[in-house]
């Protein structure tokens, strides 16, 4: 970090490609643009950049008093996910007789181009602006020379034909790149993807990260790139398998399915009476916490292995295990206070797609939500070395008042009339079950659906018409020998 004598020297000089001074304390766009530009270091000097808050253009101090709130606001820029890839920066307060100075010291990124809300900011001398096409190309080539992670390496033998280009253009690019920048971008898809870290122009092929995120068949090249869900009866793997599902395909399509599956099938909710007039709703496993743990497993896993992410549910707990132990700077002693990224480009894409909200904060919120829901804290197992496991216990509050339907206690016998009653399901739940069955068996018939879901064929016909009209499914081929295609 910069020292006080060094800061005094910087204040006595003019602004440059590595120094920006400001008296503003609330112009977050200006701060983020400066940090983004310093991260890109378009000149290739390798020098750190300095955002100095509390100083005039001539170097004189403004009399600012730096409080904890301002320190926290500037420090949070690193992890709020608006600048991607994450900037490497330190924030320090300096006290002078004429006022305080807050300095954000920013290191050049190893993975440029860096974007702030979809725009690449650079500095040429004291000038700050959005990068030109030529400047963006320089930054892209620099990243290729600095490749260290597997997701940034070329997936040799692949072409853009192995990617779902329409999905990229419709779902990803509008979220990753600012609308006006994307409208003016007339480059081919290869160069567009290269600027985002998903195409290697040297080998003329997509990267491993692109195949994982947008590939038509990721398992063809990365054999373990799927998520395996299994519901065991009992408390270990010796029990019978009640349900299983393989979430296969590119992450851009798989993540929404996993999100829905956790919300509808895992995070089951029950009202628990807490007084005569009041009830509280508790989940078997809280939706957000479970989703966060599984998304972290997908984001941080080792994609070089043939093993999938394991998402196993037992009577009393959920276990999530991903191939690849703790990575980089992270150790059992500093987890979760220190973070590092095995797959920085996949992590960035998951943030863009909305499946990661903020970096480095998820575990704390997970533990809080689990405690409030009665699950107790998640248990992280670092002993497996080549794998990472987290255990989430079932909510004790969910099991109160006889609501725990899966406990080993003997259930009271139902009267003959009640035994014939079917549990009611919401229309949305029925539609989701239909789509999930079609994903595993595209040739499924209406009669088979009725049998699997224990409903009448007329009821199934109604839901099929509804899903078709909504554009979620489509039937291809003859009525009796065709197949269902999931459109979403």
Automatic annotation (TrEMBL):
Listed InterPro entries: RecG_C_sf, Schlafen_AlbA_2_dom, Schlafen_AlbA_2_dom_sf, WH-like_DNA-bd_sf, WH_DNA-bd_sf
Biased composition (Basic and acidic residues): 408-429
Residues covered by region (Disordered): 405-429
Gene3D superfamilies named in the record: 3.30.565.60, Schlafen, AAA domain, Winged helix-like DNA-binding domain superfamily/Winged helix DNA-binding domain
Signal peptide (from-to): none
Record-annotated Schlafen AlbA-2 domain positions: 15-129
SUPFAM superfamilies registered for this protein in UniProt: Winged helix' DNA-binding domain
Top-level lineage group: Bacteria
PANTHER family: GLPR-RELATED TRANSCRIPTIONAL REPRESSOR (PTHR30595), SCHLAFEN ALBA-2 DOMAIN-CONTAINING PROTEIN (PTHR30595:SF6)
Protein name in the entry: Divergent AAA domain protein
Source lineage: Bacteria, Pseudomonadati, Bacteroidota, Bacteroidia, Bacteroidales
């Amino acid at each position: 970090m910069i020292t006080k004598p060094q800061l005094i020297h910087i204040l006595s000089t003019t602004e440059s490609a590595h120094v920006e001074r400001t008296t503003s304390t609330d112009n977050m766009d200006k701060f983020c643009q400066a940090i983004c530009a310093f991260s890109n270091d378009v000149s290739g000097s390798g020098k750190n950049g300095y955002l100095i808050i509390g100083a005039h253009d001539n170097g004189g101090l403004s009399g600012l008093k730096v409080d904890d709130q301002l320190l926290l606001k500037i420090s949070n820029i690193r992890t709020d996910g608006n600048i991607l890839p994450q900037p490497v920066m330190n924030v320090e307060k300096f006290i002078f007789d004429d006022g305080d100075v807050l300095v954000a010291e920013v290191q050049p990124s190893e993975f440029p181009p860096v974007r702030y809300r979809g725009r690449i900011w650079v500095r040429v001398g004291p000038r700050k602006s959005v990068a030109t096409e030529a400047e963006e190309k320089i930054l892209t080539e620099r990243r290729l020379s600095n490749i260290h992670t597997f997701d940034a390496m070329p997936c040799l033998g692949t072409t853009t034909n192995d990617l779902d280009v329409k999905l990229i253009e419709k779902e990803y690019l509008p979220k990753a790149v600012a609308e006006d920048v994307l409208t003016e971008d007339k480059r081919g898809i290869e160069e567009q993807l290269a600027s985002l870290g998903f195409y290697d122009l040297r080998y003329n092929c997509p990267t491993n990260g692109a195949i994982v995120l947008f590939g038509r068949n990721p398992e063809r090249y990365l054999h373990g790139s799927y998520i395996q869900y299994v519901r065991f009866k009992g408390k270990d793997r010796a029990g019978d398998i009640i349900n299983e599902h393989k979430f296969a395909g590119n992450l851009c399509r798989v993540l929404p399915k996993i999100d829905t599956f956790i919300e509808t099938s895992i995070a089951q909710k029950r009202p628990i009476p807490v007084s005569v007039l009041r009830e509280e709703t508790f989940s078997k496993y809280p939706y957000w916490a479970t989703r966060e743990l599984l998304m972290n497993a997908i984001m941080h896993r080792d994609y070089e292995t043939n093993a999938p992410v394991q998402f196993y549910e037992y009577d009393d707990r959920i276990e999530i295990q991903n191939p690849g132990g703790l990575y980089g700077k992270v150790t059992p002693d500093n987890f979760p206070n220190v973070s590092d990224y095995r797959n920085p480009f996949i992590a960035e894409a998951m943030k863009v797609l909305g499946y990661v909200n903020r970096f480095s904060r998820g575990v704390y919120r997970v533990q809080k939500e689990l405690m409030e829901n009665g699950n107790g804290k998640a248990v992280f197992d670092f002993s497996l070395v080549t794998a990472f496991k987290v255990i989430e216990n079932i909510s004790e509050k969910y099991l109160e008042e006889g609501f725990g339907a899966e406990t080993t206690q003997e259930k009271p016998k139902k009267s003959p009339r009640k035994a014939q009653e079917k549990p009611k399901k919401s229309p949305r739940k029925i539609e989701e079950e239909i789509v999930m069955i079609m994903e595993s068996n595209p040739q499924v018939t209406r009669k088979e659906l009725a049998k699997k879901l224990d409903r009448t064929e007329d009821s199934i016909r109604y839901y099929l018409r509804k899903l078709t009209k909504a554009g979620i499914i489509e039937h291809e081929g003859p009525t009796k020998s065709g197949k269902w295609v999931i459109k979403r």
